[in-house]
Design brief:
137 residues; single chain; alpha+beta; two-stranded antiparallel sheet; binds zinc ion; 26% helix; globular; 2 domains
Amino acid sequence: MISIYEESLAISPYRAWMALNVPSDPMSVLAQCTHYVPMMANEFPELKVVKGVVSSVKNLDNISETIHKEYPHMWLVSPTGEIIDPTVRQFCNLGPLDYRAFPDDATSCNKCINCGRYFTSNKFYPMCSNECAEEFG
Ligand SMILES: [Zn+2]
């Protein structure tokens, strides 16, 4: 008989690698995505490194009804499109996560002074959009 744990290791070499190399303690992986993601990409060249932001789908950190707090983050995507996130445990209090990738050529990560969302370079800096630029005045 095979345990669920062993079964998942058999299915995913990524899960197996994470179980062996990434601490399971949420505090140990806090802000460590830039350490573990390149390490994992080095081990599995087929994985694509993605930079962007994550937020709580259920808005459990509840800044407001409409604005979800976002966290700059780095993760990997498998050739089949599966999100591989070795340091996801740092967000364990947020429930399901929404992953918003920045464009591949993004060179910056700015925080909008109106709505608080993160964005890459644009002509509305230091706001994220025309709407925020108008709202901020
Ligand atoms: Zn904004």
